[in-house]
């Protein structure tokens, strides 16, 4: 399989995407060509935000093409079909991709994972084996996670940082909101550690389904929903492991759901994004760095009584 990518202006992006699918592309994806720069444009936002823009000013278009098809010939055919020239696109690149079974790859990678001395992440494939091997370690909390199509296996630094913070701070009976729950790993671990009422929220229906399934596997009582259906409440711990830009946009929303003297925990933040995130929350909760791993940072702050 081959990957063809190029940049183009907003005016052309829909025409090009449709034309490549007409010429039997396997898939077409579009992203902001200026992502992670000062020119980045946040046009796809969290529920509650609105925009009248549906494409970025500069778009990176990525097309997956069958192995035996020449990507340059396909590109030329598309441009000719649309009456365009190569002057309408730039930064053309072609990459050969290896065929990988991503689900099997993720499920087989270095499991079981001991995130902390007492939090062990396992998959359904090695669940029984792990329990048999470690059945003498009664103080270990086993979290069985099948990520499916959702984010959160415990292997990424952003997730392990959050798990480590929860292990250090959950005492007994705390209420927890996991915003952007993915596989549900943080919410489920919170319950295993002794939290009380835990709510897991995500905008992705596949993540919601995955989190519900994982909660059943772990025999925990977890409330899982999308943002529109989440209970109107505040929590002793609000934790969000997503990305820097959405975290900044939701500063007011997330902060407002933290109880007085409760904690806000944020992850999914690169070290060069820390100042921007802290500034976005400065009017609500004073954040500070808890830990950094491989360039990823976990921030936390207490909602002191004002």
From TrEMBL:
HAMAP family: Methyltr_PrmA. GO terms for molecular function: protein-lysine N-methyltransferase activity. Its EC number is 2.1.1.-. The lineage of its organism: Bacteria, Pseudomonadati, Pseudomonadota, Betaproteobacteria, Candidatus Kinetoplastidibacterium. Methylates ribosomal protein L11. S-adenosyl-L-methionine binds at residues 159, 180, 202, 241. This is Ribosomal protein L11 methyltransferase. GO terms for biological process: methylation. InterPro entries: Ribosomal_L11_MeTrfase_PrmA, Ribosomal_PrmA_MeTrfase, SAM-dependent_MTases_sf. The gene is prmA. Keywords: Cytoplasm, Methyltransferase, Ribonucleoprotein, Ribosomal protein, S-adenosyl-L-methionine, Transferase.
């Amino acid at each position: 399989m081959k990957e063809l990518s190029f940049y183009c202006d907003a005016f052309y992006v829909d025409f090009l995407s449709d034309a490549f699918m007409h010429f039997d592309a396997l898939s077409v994806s579009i992203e902001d060509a200026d992502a992670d720069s000062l020119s980045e444009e946040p046009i796809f936002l969290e529920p509650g935000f609105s925009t009248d823009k549906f494409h970025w000013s500069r778009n990176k278009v990525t097309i997956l093409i069958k192995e035996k098809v020449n990507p340059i010939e396909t590109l030329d055919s598309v441009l000719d079909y649309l009456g365009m020239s190569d002057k309408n696109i730039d930064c053309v690149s072609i990459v050969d991709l290896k065929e990988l079974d991503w689900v099997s790859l993720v499920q087989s990678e270095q499991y079981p994972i001991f995130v902390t001395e007492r939090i062990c992440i396992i998959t359904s494939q090695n669940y029984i084996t792990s329990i048999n091997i470690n059945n003498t370690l009664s103080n270990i909390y086993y979290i069985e996670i099948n990520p499916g199509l959702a984010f959160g296996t415990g292997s990424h630094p952003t997730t392990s940082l959050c798990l480590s913070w929860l292990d250090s701070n959950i005492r007994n009976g705390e209420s927890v909101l996991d915003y952007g729950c993915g596989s549900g790993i943080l919410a489920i671990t919170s319950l295993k550690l002794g939290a009380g009422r835990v709510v897991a929220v995500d905008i992705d229906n596949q993540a919601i389904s995955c989190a519900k399934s994982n909660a059943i596997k772990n025999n925990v009582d977890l409330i899982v929903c999308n943002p529109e259906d989440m209970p109107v409440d505040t929590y002793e711990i609000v934790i969000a492991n997503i990305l820097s830009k959405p975290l900044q946009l939701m500063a007011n929303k997330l902060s407002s759901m933290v109880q007085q003297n409760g904690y806000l925990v944020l992850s999914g933040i690169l070290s060069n994004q820390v100042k921007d995130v802290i500034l976005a929350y400065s009017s609500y909760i004073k954040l500070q760095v808890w830990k950094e791993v491989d360039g990823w940072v976990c921030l936390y702050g207490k909602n002191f009584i004002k």
